[in-house]
């Protein structure tokens, strides 16, 4: 079920953000998870039998995810700047911000 996949992705994003030390491939991992979550949201919202409760739940969860990313923005930014591929990392960060909205 798509909502279960959405919950799983959100949990993975939270685990990644809350990790004490970000892994070296953190920028790529975060971008991939945020992009996958975005795809799942689109799939859920396109369902023909979409209920208002599910819609409201997805909207609230998206706002919570955006707030979580915002809360960790400084730390994420610092990690991306430290990354060896800083130019690529900054474009990844830009993508993450777009999908987080």
Summarize the structure.
The protein is an all-alpha fold and 101 residues long.
Span between N and C termini?
24 Å
Report helical residue fraction.
Answer: over 70%
- Domains counted in the coordinates: how many? 1
**What is the arithmetic mean of pLDDT?**
85
Number of E-state strands: 0
What amount of the residues lies in strands?
under 5%
Q: How would the global form be characterised?
A: elongated
Using only CA atoms, what is the Rg? Answer: 14 Å
- Number of helical runs? 5
Question: What can you see in these coordinates?
Answer:
The protein is mostly helical and 101 residues long. It has one domain. Helix content is 80%, strand content 0%. The chain has 5 helices and no strands. It has helices spanning 2-18, 26-45, 52-71, 73-82, 86-99. α1 runs antiparallel to α2 and α4 runs antiparallel to α5 (86-99). The chain is elongated, with a radius of gyration of 14 Å. The relative contact order is 0.16. It comes from Photobacterium carnosum. This is Flagellar biosynthesis protein FliS. Keywords: Cell projection, Cilium, Flagellum.
């Amino acid at each position: 079920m798509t909502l279960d996949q959405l919950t799983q992705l959100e949990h993975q994003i939270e685990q990644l953000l809350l990790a004490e030390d970000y892994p070296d491939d953190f920028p790529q991992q975060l971008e991939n998870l945020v992009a996958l979550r975005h795809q799942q949201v689109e799939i859920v919202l396109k369902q023909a039998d979409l209920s208002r409760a599910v819609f409201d739940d997805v909207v609230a969860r998206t706002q919570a995810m955006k707030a979580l990313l915002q809360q960790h923005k400084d730390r994420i930014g610092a990690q991306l700047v430290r990354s060896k591929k800083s130019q690529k990392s900054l474009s990844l960060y830009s993508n993450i911000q777009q999908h987080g909205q």
